[in-house]
Amino acid sequence: MTTTSADGTVRRRSTWRAAQNRAGAAFAVPFFAGFVLVFLLPILYALYQSFYSVQSAGGLGIESSSSTVFVAFDNYRRALSDSHFWMAMLRVGGFAVVQIPISLGLSLAAALLLDAARERATRAYRLLLLVPYMIPAVVATLIWVYLYSPKVGPLTKAGSWFGLSVNFFSPAMLWVSIGNLIIWMCLGFNMLIIYGALRGVDRSSLEAARVDGAGAFRTAWSIKIPSVRGSLVLTGMLSIIGMLQIFNEPLLFRSASPQTVTKDFTPIMAIYSQAFTNNNYNYAAALSIVLAVVIGLLSFLFYKFANRPA
Amino acid sequence: MSTTTMQRSADVPPNVSAVPGPRRARRTRRRDHEQKYVLVGLILFAIYSVAPVWWLVVNVTKDRRDLYSTNGLWFGHWNLGANFRQLADYDDGIFFRWLANSVFYAVVGAAVCTLISVMCGYALSRFSFRGRNLGLGIVIGSFLVPTALITVPLYLLFSRLGLVDTVWAVLIPSFVSPFGVYLAKVYVDASVPEELLEAARLDGASELRIFTQIVVRLMPTGAATVFVLLFVSNWNSFFLPLTMLRGSERWTLALGLYNWFTQKNDQIADHTTLTLMGALISIIPLAVVMIAMQRYWRTGVAVGALK
């Protein structure tokens, strides 16, 4: 008697659990429905589109002027040999290789300074360094394009005081100008991530180092920097992903110097111009997939490389 | 290495626990010296961060002649009121339309997305249904999916659905944020005790009631953090509205300012003062939200760093 009743309780409890978990799953439905609509379907649709092409069928006696035909991997074959697209990729990749270490180095320096400063000072400086983070990216770019502009901005004038005639929009200077802009935009945010990690460093080991006579620089180099490696990897990875998608900044620079910043200056700009200038959506879809694969691969490699056992 | 340490600790008398007087003084002097360098460094970083904004504030107050002829870092003839009126009058005050649109997209998008994220975070944290681990994997994996890449395919899909150039084209994508879900899950993990849920269940409360009466009330901080981070990213959004919206009456601030900026280069009219004024005003709502809710987004950034 007692055993059956115990069995019953167990069974009742497990069906109760199942009902509860169904209810739990229901809470997840809105997000995953949205995920399917906003992430999954577009990717699948882009994949589908990338295997088709709109071809004008003149001269073959077909009445419609253009038709969508299945072209298998033609778009991809074209993408792989598209010199403009790969030039854009190399251009941005080369830029990232130079810019990201500088940017992260500066963020790290700012975070270390903030960490070394007396408690009183940190609040104010942290807020001041985060001012750029509070400015919308497009507005930040506008401000800097004006600052660089020889007509309105003070920078060209300041350069001429030192006998330099700097054209911030010349081909040689352009990446420096954009690089500085991006450093300005990201410095505070990256600093905050690294600073957060620095605060987590065991204070007693820092105190021990100080008693042993290590200076601020030595402590930073031997204790603090190694212990924020994880954060540096994270910010580095986010920077790479962000950089390959760079679009807003060059687009605004393009309206300041259209000769230097061509319409396919960066990969996303190339995709955008294929889609909305040439109206070649199928090819744009193929390029999007190629770029996604490249970014995924790079993130993976970077992650593996940065997390390899020392 | 270890021998030198031992030697040094050997010549300190064992009964003196602290460092002797002269050496401590030297050390304090060195720390003061270091503090000076630290402050100089921080001041330089602060100037770098703030100077461009200072330039904007100064030049918004100038008339067009002073803008081109006077020192950009100091005030000229005070013309702020006239500049503001010019902005307000331009194209029947279209700027304020854009401002309202931006606020609408950012607030509605972030509010709905926060609700969806908290629900999903709760589900992933406190239930063990089939597919839960897959769901969690999808959430974390899609951090790596570049949003700019989704945008063109999304445009193709939305144009098939007839959503392009409607409010929904901007709102719907902003409802879905994997990072928001992840953040919400972390907060539920930390602030919604399992025992409390069990107790409510034993009292016969329905799952919906448990969510609205207990879970939501336990995590105002988590929800506020998710909201602020989403608000900021919506306010900054540019590529999505640029792709989706055609009619200027549905534009966001960023899109409108971009348009003015490019028109300036067509030399039809000088839109520089308009653009500068608009740029400054567009900073204000974001700055107010971020300063008022500092505590929240800073913890959000920290959580993001830990993932």
Structure notes:
- The complex is a heterodimer of chains A (310) and B (307).
- Chain A is mainly alpha-helical and 310 residues long.
- Chain A is 75% helix and 3% strand.
- Chain A contains 13 helices and 2 strands, in the order αββαααααααααααα.
- Chain A has helices at 2-50, 74-80, 83-116, 119-129, 137-148, 154-161, 171-199, 203-211, 216-227, 229-244, 248-256, 267-276, 281-306; strands at residues 52-56, 66-70.
- In chain A, helix 1 (2-50) crosses helix 13, helix 2 (74-80) packs across helix 13 and helix 3 packs across helix 7 (171-199).
- Chain A starts with a helix and ends with a helix.
- Chain B contains 16 helices and no strands.
- Mean pLDDT of chain B is 82; it is low at 1-17.
- Chain B is flat.
- Chain B has helices spanning 2-11, 21-60, 64-69, 80-89, 94-126, 132-141, 147-161, 167-174, 178-191, 194-202, 207-218, 220-236, 239-244, 253-265, 272-292, 294-306.
- The two termini of chain B are 37 Å apart.
- Chain B is mostly helical and 307 residues long.
- Chains A and B meet through helix 1, helix 3, helix 4, helix 5 and helix 7 of A and helix 2, helix 5, helix 6, helix 7 and helix 11 of B.
Short description:
The complex is a heterodimer of chains A (310) and B (307). Chain A is mostly helical and 310 residues long.
The residue ranges of chain B in which pLDDT falls below 50 over 5 or more consecutive positions are 1-17
Largest interchain contact? A-B, 96 and 96 residues
Pattern of helices and strands of chain A:
HEEHHHHHHHHHHHH
Tell me what the CATH architecture of the largest domain in chain B is.
Orthogonal Bundle
CATH topology of the largest domain in chain B: MetI-like fold
Q: Count up the helices of chain B.
A: 16
| Low-confidence region ranges of chain A | 1-5
